[in-house]
Amino acid sequence: MIRLLLTVPLLTALTASAEINFRTQILPVLGKACAECHKAPQKDSSGKVQNPKGGFRMDAPSHMLKGGSSGPGVEPGDPDKSLVFQRILLPPEHEDAMPPKGKGKPLTFPEIELVKNWIAEGASFGEWKGSDANATTTTVAGPAKKTADPLAAGLTTPPADALKKLTDLGAVAGPVATDSKLVRIEWVANAASITDKEIELLKPLAANITELDLSHTKITDAAMAVIGTFPRLTKLSINGTAVSDTGIASLKGLVNLDFLSAHSTQVSDAALATLQSLRKLKNVYFWKSRVSASGASSLQKALPGSTITID
Question: Which of 148 and 309 is assigned the larger pLDDT?
Fold first, then answer.
């Protein structure tokens, strides 16, 4: 996925305390990524009725909150349980990605963060009613009350100098939500120049890092030994790297990890024993790796409720 480098002024804008406006900020983003496949049923030129993909409509608040066959479209206050957020995170080649490959440009990192923050702040639709405006009665859940993130308990503010060193190297580094002390880091520029040496710069932020994307960098298993010491890491992407089973073994202490994307790597079934011990792990992506169908099935059984994708 090609993402734009987030400049400091834009990052500041995203993390400001002003409430995000759904009609002017979120609707245009979701419109270009999702609306085409998730509108009300309608007839095509041949007279055949075209239903929304997965039974999920996005033309009104009530439909977005209800979701479709795969779960709630939007879970106010919880991006990770929201189908919309799950789908825009997927690589463009994935069959469930929004927008589908060939039907629009993937969302940029700032756009993804904007949607995430909107959901985390309660998913207020404001005055927007969509097709609900035509309904006789409408019941729409109000914004969820923001609650403290238990994962951030006891955290201090991440050191600004450590964040600056990363941004100077082409990374996007900043809070995962408004006023959060938890940090997300992704290299959107110069990824191919990032090696195990640069990963050493993450150590001062070890307690704060909760989301880390090192896809297409030059890291090896040595870097994974550092990453394995991040106690609050929940999401890790190492797609297209030289990481192997040895590197995955370093993750055994990441008890909060719930998302791992390791496609286009040399990871094999030998790494799955380590992952079986990570009880919060719910989404794992292994396509173009050496993980077999039987191995993926065994991992899924060991982690009830998880989704393991290998193709």
Answer: 309
> Which residues have CB under 8 Å from 25's CB, separation 6+?
114, 118
Query: Interior CA angle at 65 toward 79 and 121, to 5°?
Result: 40
Q: Which residue has the tokens 């050496």?
A: 290
**Between 189 and 307, residue with greater pLDDT:** 307
Residues 125-137: tens digit of each pLDDT: 888 887 776 654 4
Domain borders along the chain are 8-40+49-129, 154-309
Pairing of strands 283-285, 307-309: parallel
The number of beta carbons lying within 10 Å of the beta carbon of residue 203 is 12
d(CA 291, CA 285): 10
Sign of CA dihedral 13, 15, 17, 23: positive
Q: Which residues contact 94 (CB under 8 A, 6 or more apart)?
A: 285, 309
H helices of 37-82, where? 61-66
Each residue's pLDDT tens digit, 253-268? 999 999 999 999 999 9
Q: Residue with structure tokens 């880091």?
A: 185
Give 189-224 as a DSSP string.
SSGGG--HHHHGGGGGGTTTEEEEE-TTS---HHHH
Do 79 and 119 meet the contact criterion of CB atoms below 8 Å apart? Answer: yes
pLDDT at 201: 97
Identify the CATH number of the domain defined by range 154-309: 3.80.10.10
Do 262 and 240 meet the contact criterion of CB atoms below 8 Å apart?
no
* pLDDT tens per residue across span 152-165: 888 999 999 999 99
